[in-house]
Structure formats: C-alpha cells, structure tokens
Design a protein that fits this description.
globular, 386 residues, 41% helix, alpha/beta, 4-stranded parallel beta sheet, Rossmann fold
Length: 386
C-alpha cells in the first residue's frame, strides 16, 4: 500500500484521531460531586470570580484549534469538513507533546468578522486559541483583533513556523561560521509564514537584548522583489516593503539572491535553481520549505554549493516543522496564564529550540520533531519570558 492508501485506511478505521476521556468515573460516590448538587458550589465560586475557572475547570489546560478551511495545507480552500482531519491531527500533537486538551473547531464561515466574533464567544471555555489554515491576508486581521480577549491567540502558520525557522537559522549560522547580524536573507513567499519570519528576523516591535537583526532581508512574491518602488502593492505587502530591502533592489528572485547568505523558501516547487545558488555568497544556507515538494531538492542544492539545506520533510535531514514550537509555546503560555504571546516569547522559544542541539552540523541543525524534550524547553522559555 502507498502512503496515501495507508493514511486513508487508518483514518477510516479510527473514525477520528482523538476522543474525550473523563478524568473521574460517575460512580454513586462521585456523581453528587461532579454533577448536581456538588457542582453548584463550583458555579457559585466562579460566579463571584471568573478567574477561578482556571482552578476549577478545563480552562487552565485547553486550547481551541480554530479554522475556516480557507487554506488547508497546500491544498487551498477545502472548507471546514475537509479541514477537520488536519485539525484533529493538530489536537493529537497538542496532547501527545504538551498534555494540552485541545479541540478542533472548524467554522462554517469564512467571513473575518464572524470568525472574530465566534472566537470571542467561545473564549470563556478555553485557555488559548490556535488559529490554523486561514488564508492570507485575512489571517493577519483576525489574529490582530483577537489579541485583547484575555487569553493568548496565535496563528501557528505564521508564528510557529517562524519560530522553527529562526531556531534553524541560529544553528545554521554557527555551522557556516557567520554572525546572525551579518546575514543577508532572501525570503521567497510573502504569505503568512513569510511575513512572520521577516518580523522575527528584524525584531519588529521588540527592542530586547535577544534581538539580533539581520543585516538585510529581501522578500519576493510571485512578481519578484518587494520594493517601495512597486506600484502594485497593498495592505501587508506595503508594510513588508517598508521593513525590508533597504537597498531598494528590483527584479526577480535571481537578482535578489545576488550576494545573499540565506534563502528561505515558503513558495512553490522548483522556485530555486542551482544557477540561483551559484549567485549567493560563500557557504550559502538554503531552507527550501515548500511542502510536500521543496523549492529545490536537497541533493541538488548541495551539489550547487549549499552547505546547510533544510526542508519541511521528515525524509531529509534538517526538517523544519512548527511542531517544534507550538506545543511548548502554548504549554508555557497556559502555565503562566498570560493574556497574549509576545515577540519576546517567540524569540526565547527559538533560542530554546536551537540550544537543544549542542553541536550543530550541516546535517543536524534542529532536534527531531518527535523529541519531547523540546516542548519542555520551549515551555520553560515562554514562562520565563512571561
């Protein structure tokens, strides 16, 4: 059987990858405690002080994984039902790595206002909200307008991915013997993850001692280099133009890579060619993260001169996967009961992931996505930031 056939068979047999399990049995002795009349005492406590919900209910350990199904994996606008198996998988990872009781909520609306209001309405139940697989650019607005609801809200496609990329870049720079502040970085793909990694690399909104801004960051979209001189930009791309490309370069990805130290691909298969890598600075770093087929295959990139090559795949060395970040980030945020996830928390999370690899090499810049120690390290880092 192929991988696709095995996956279909497993999902059909299980009929869902998660279930709800009670922590206490409804015995004759327990029934009056867990339900009426005993539960009434808990209600009265929380009525007087809503924050006590963290002590007496699931709120202290729960995350809603919310999507509208508008951008499911790399498959496009699939809708809420088709998004459900992905959200179930996310919930499974929350429980497996961080012991968080998450639940998939696939909304039957793609209207940003309705999504925002729905999340606000369900917030009393949850200790955190993980936004997932929501298309650009509305994902930016939705996340921004939910930052003041009293519990942390994070769009994982943006920040979980960006944290993992920064962690990999920290160690890749060590391997090639370059300082982070001296790196010239080209990000190919101006979507959710591309925008988030740019802001993390440039420490936008954060003047921490941890900030080590890259020397130069250039972003490319499908039309080429994003520059303040382009007249076809709007919204978040105009913001990116104001943050990046200080030299005001113009042209294609090929021109952008002239003298670059790092390529970060969040775009499409085949976007990077060997001839493009030859235009880069000595000992180039290539993160080809398009899934399931990267911008360039690792053997081809290495043959072209790339010293460190990473992808989003598990069948090549140096997998960059947001599972390295999001379980620990939410674990730390829940334990600290913070109202939001800050830029400093993301920076600390990236550093914690990088530090789990004591001696990085060209074939090993990040820990395994299945390494449970990573979640604990990230959670501690987030708590410390709080």
């Amino acid at each position: 059987m192929t991988l696709a056939q095995r996956a279909l068979s497993l999902h059909q047999r299980l009929r869902g990858k998660i279930s709800v399990v009670p922590k206490v049995a409804p015995t004759v002795k327990n029934f009056p405690l867990v339900y009426t009349p005993g539960v009434g005492e808990v209600v009265k406590k929380i009525t007087k002080n809503k924050k006590l919900a963290y002590q007496y209910t699931i709120k202290s350990n729960s995350v809603a994984v919310v999507t509208d199904g508008s951008r499911v994996l790399g498959l496009g606008n699939c809708g809420p039902e088709a998004a459900l198996p992905v959200m179930e998988g996310k919930v499974m990872l929350f429980k497996s790595f961080a012991d968080i009781d998450a639940f998939p909520l696939c909304l039957n609306t793609q209207d940003p206002d309705e999504i925002i209001q729905t999340v606000k309405n369900i917030a009393p139940v949850f200790g955190g909200i993980n936004l997932e697989d929501i298309e650009t650019p509305k994902c930016f607005r939705i996340e921004q307008e939910l930052q003041d609801i009293g519990i942390p809200v994070m769009h994982d496609d943006q920040h979980g991915t960006a944290i993992a990329i920064l962690a990999g870049l920290i160690n890749a720079a060590k391997v090639v013997g370059k300082d982070l502040e001296e790196l010239r970085v080209v990000v190919n793909g101006a979507g959710a993850a591309g925008s988030a990694i740019v802001k993390l690399l440039l420490c936008v909104g954060q003047e921490s001692r941890l900030c080590r801004k890259m020397k130069e960051v250039i972003v490319c979209d499908s039309k080429g280099i994003i520059s303040r001189d382009r007249t076809d930009l709007s919204g978040y791309k105009m913001e990116l133009a104001g943050l990046t490309n200080r030299e005001r370069r113009q042209g294609s990805l090929k021109q952008a890579l002239e003298g670059a130290d790092v390529f970060i691909g969040l775009s499409a298969p085949g976007a990077l060619t060997p001839s493009f890598i030859s235009r880069m600075e000595r000992d180039p770093i290539v993160f080809a993260l398009a899934n399931p087929i990267p911008e360039i295959m690792p053997p081809v990139a290495r043959k072209a001169g790339a010293v460190v090559v990473a992808t989003g795949r598990s069948d090549f060395p140096n997998q960059i996967n947001n599972v390295l970040a999001f379980p620990g980030v939410f674990r730390g945020a829940l334990d600290a009961q913070v109202p939001r996830i800050t830029h400093l928390m993301k920076l600390n999370a990236a550093l914690a992931i990088a530090k789990t690899v004591k001696m990085p090499t060209s074939q090993h810049i990040l820990p395994s996505a299945l390494d449970n120690k990573v979640t604990k390290a990230v959670a501690r880092a987030v708590q410390k930031s709080a």
